[in-house]
Write a structure and sequence with these properties.
2 copies of one chain form a homodimer. The first copy, chain A, has 357 residues and is α/β, with parallel strands linked by helices. The first copy, chain A, has 9 helices and 14 strands. In chain A, strand 6 and strand 7 form a beta hairpin.
Amino acid sequence: MKVHNFSAGPSILPQEVLQQASDAVKNFDGLNLSLIEISHRSKNFVAVMDEAIALVKKLLKLPEGYSVMFLQGGASLQFTMVAQNLLKAQNGKAAYLNTGTWASKALKEAKLFGEILEIASSKDKNFNFIPKGYNIPEDVDYFHCTSNNTIFGTQMHDFSNTKAPLVCDMSSDIFCRDMDYSKFDLIYAGAQKNMGPAGTTLVIVRDEILGKSGREIPTMLNYETHIKKESMFNTPPVFAVYVSMLTLRWIDQNGGLPAIEKKNRAKADLIYGEIDSNPMFIGTAEKEDRSLMNVTFLLKDDALKDEFDAMWKAANINGLNGHRDVGGYRASIYNAMPIESVQVLVDVMKAFTKKFG
Amino acid sequence: MKVHNFSAGPSILPQEVLQQASDAVKNFDGLNLSLIEISHRSKNFVAVMDEAIALVKKLLKLPEGYSVMFLQGGASLQFTMVAQNLLKAQNGKAAYLNTGTWASKALKEAKLFGEILEIASSKDKNFNFIPKGYNIPEDVDYFHCTSNNTIFGTQMHDFSNTKAPLVCDMSSDIFCRDMDYSKFDLIYAGAQKNMGPAGTTLVIVRDEILGKSGREIPTMLNYETHIKKESMFNTPPVFAVYVSMLTLRWIDQNGGLPAIEKKNRAKADLIYGEIDSNPMFIGTAEKEDRSLMNVTFLLKDDALKDEFDAMWKAANINGLNGHRDVGGYRASIYNAMPIESVQVLVDVMKAFTKKFG
């Protein structure tokens, strides 16, 4: 029986990707060997890595001058790598926008390596909006933001034009929409939402911003190490890279980011439309900052929680509980989520209101 | 047709583990969801992590006071993590034994954080033996060694009794033999030889050696972060941990390390016996330091290389080429390699000598 998987991450992946991944664990490329028991330097796996890197550049329409890496350690390791690679050893300074839990963690890690300015924060309203109208000092080494806040259901829809390099954590909304990615100087994203399984982290960097910190960086934490070795300085996380490549191929074969964005907007319109028109529910994020990926909402009458929970569970919906910092519900509707599953949830909300409203 | 997989790593895994891993990518634990699209905080995956940690402790017979972590970044990231966690901020000093490429890299990374003594090296003989009879200064923060040298086919069969904490990189021979693991204070190992797919790194540490460096360590590089959160500080590499758990279960169900060691010795005796008795081949490592895992050997007459290569390839043998630093051949006979495959190689060597000797 089909499960409607609204998990916040690790999260839903395309069914055909899961099938191909499962097959490759038994027999990869007709080698009569598993994907996970061959050398990462075999021509078969090198082709996977090359295709994954090429697909990232193609889908994001990156101009010349960018490098793409598949690393390990999640966005959490990027918090320190960004700071160590970009903050100048002498009087290093960076500006951070604080839009939630992960942005706060990024900021905290950077503080070990320089002066960090929190130029704006939405913490006083439990991060239910994206601050705007802030000024980014011209003399910072970079400006850091988080494009989507999984826990709080907010997403940046505009990005500042800064003179400083623009660094963005896109872990929970990478590949969700078509936009000009060349305005970013560094993008990083844990794979486990829109790209693949947990275990690899995509890093995209404009080469010219590197090598300027004057800092001695441990080899594995230095982006230049991985760029030079095309993400094969040491053994890469073969399975996670392979499944990410399959997912990127799936996006490409389904019309690329313009088509993905159109589908994502249709899904978001459907569920936000229900939240706004149904008297039993209320959204938690400011409307203009709502996320295309994570839809957070509350029951107006918490006394009916058990009844609502029983209804969505009976509909085979999974992963709908909200994060403890917000409570209520969170419907994560990542790229691989079909609109049919969103409709199932909307139908449950309607039926709930008919019965208890 | 069955391939005899002698790859140095990522390398052969048990067939039944590959089958179970493939199944879980489609449907994990009967959830009708893939292993790679569920929350790492679900009770199903938490049970996997708990079992993996418990199996490591059981198989290595670790006493109380040790913590087990499943991290990311490979042994290469451990090179800097070991140094940052254990080298004192003030006048930190450590002793390293240099037995090969990976030991040299570990030593180089540590130098960023303190005074590193190379107390012995086999570099002058292209690392074809394990140095012995060296003295470890009593005032070092730790002593670091590499138990098995994949490239050079050597393995440590004795470990020094030091007053300083004993740190060992066991990436290529973890779980290959039964011994007293409680003499080690810190063990680390990339998964991709005896434990699982590339993408996770096992770290075992005696808790009492931590927290003494007086150093500010980035959160993700601090062992205490991961111990406190039971390897779930951030999203773990779910698939790699799951397959490692399956492999640990396989070792346990097949008699644990005593039985594994017995099989490994039988395989090693078979192939080394052929190398020593066959006039066409010669081993590269000193006999007393030979590895149970990586058997390195040369053709005495390199002019016959094409003929030998054609014969083993015709026998469906894969991954036998030696590393460029040694040349010749390397038969990696990790835990999951059946003796039948070793016999196929030995038969090819015999047939080759009969034809060309």
